[in-house]
From TrEMBL:
Transmembrane segments: none
Classification of source organism: Bacteria, Pseudomonadati, Pseudomonadota, Gammaproteobacteria, Chromatiales
Annotated CbbQ/NirQ/NorQ C-terminal domain residues: 183-265
Biological source species: Wenzhouxiangella sediminis
GO molecular function: ATP binding; ATP hydrolysis activity
Family classification: Belongs to the CbbQ/NirQ/NorQ/GpvN family.
InterPro entries referenced in this protein's UniProt entry, alphabetically: ATPase_dyneun-rel_AAA, CbbQ/NirQ/NorQ/GpvN, CbbQ_C, P-loop_NTPase
Domain ATPase dynein-related AAA: start-end pairs: 36-170
Keyword Nuclease annotated: no
Protein's UniProt keywords contain Isomerase: no
Name of this protein: CbbQ/NirQ/NorQ/GpvN family protein
UniProt entry keywords in alphabetical sequence: ATP-binding, Nucleotide-binding
Length: 268
């Protein structure tokens, strides 16, 4: 037996998503018009949850791919695999999304190999086709199919950014960490910790985020705040949880850690 086949994520349950700026209606309009969507924003600010929520809301199967620097076009489209002495074509997640009228979400798309953009181009203009060179098929995407990609502009280097010829094929939405009162609501809902205690954490996060671009490459994410609040809700002391989730994951530099510890010592 080989590895279990990666399938579509269930869209039966609606993952909770707190909207901040009309992004749900925008997504739905883009889906109805057959437009591909680019989500820009820092890691852990809600992009993946947003796509999962919208896929479930629209009743479409979701195929999520975390892109990395070894990811090739064949990983998305499919390949011939040996099966009992025979070779059999196996669809990749992008091909399945096209065939099934699903939503394909390519997380951190700039990490993928260059040949990936070649398969995305004919899918992201008015042709909406996916040519499968190996099988000789040219798949016409049904109206329900949607391509969504995300990337984090904060991490981009000159060598790793989306080319204008690729990015100008997408409608784009910019994501950021939500305003404090909304982030408090999200962290409380996700962790079960009281809003009062969450508000203290968000206050600390805001001060840590002010260090972004100076001492820190990236500020603390909503995801890490949810980790911290969950540990506290489970009975851990606030300082211990904050140190392990809001300080240590951010840096390995002793001076930076000391500066973050200083912020923590004045917080609770
Ligand atoms: P990204 O894809 O931007 O890296 P995620 O979507 O994985 O980030 O978000 C990380 C976590 O933060 C989620 O699992 C969820 O707990 C929480 N989260 C962030 N924003 C929201 C939001 N608007 N509504 C609900 N949960 C959110």
């Amino acid at each position: 037996m080989g590895d279990p086949e990666p399938g579509a994520e269930s869209s039966a349950q609606l993952p909770w998503y707190r909207e901040t700026a009309g992004e749900c209606a925008f997504f739905e309009a883009a889906w109805q018009q057959g437009l591909p969507l680019l989500l820009k924003g820092p890691t852990g600010c809600g992009k993946t949850r947003f796509v999962a929520h919208m896929a479930a809301r629209l009743g479409r199967p979701l195929f999520t791919v975390a892109c990395h620097d070894d990811l090739t076009a064949a990983d998305l489209t499919g390949r011939y695999l040996l099966s009992g002495g025979d070779t059999q074509w196996v669809d990749g997640p992008l091909t399945r999304a096209v065939r099934e009228g699903g939503i394909c979400y390519l997380d951190e798309v700039v990490e993928a190999r260059k040949d990936v953009t070649v398969v995305l181009h004919p899918l992201t203009d008015d042709r909406r086709v996916l040519p499968l060179e190996r099988t000789g098929e040219i798949l016409q995407a049904p109206p329900e199919f949607m391509l969504v990609v995300s990337y984090n502009p904060g991490y981009q280097h000159v060598l790793k950014s989306l080319k204008p010829s690729t990015r100008q094929r997408f409608a784009a939405l910019s994501f950021d960490f939500p305003p404090p009162e909304v982030e408090t609501e999200i962290v409380a809902a996700e962790s079960g910790l009281s809003k009062d205690l969450c508000a203290g954490l968000i206050n600390l996060a805001r001060r840590i985020r002010e260090l972004k671009g100076k001492d820190l490459e990236e500020g603390v994410s909503t995801r890490l705040l949810v980790y911290c609040a969950s540990l506290v809700a489970g009975g851990m002391a606030m300082e211990t949880a904050a140190r392990a989730t809001l300080i240590q994951p951010l840096s390995d530099d002793g001076d930076v850690i000391a500066a973050l510890e200083e912020l923590l010592s004045h917080s609770f």
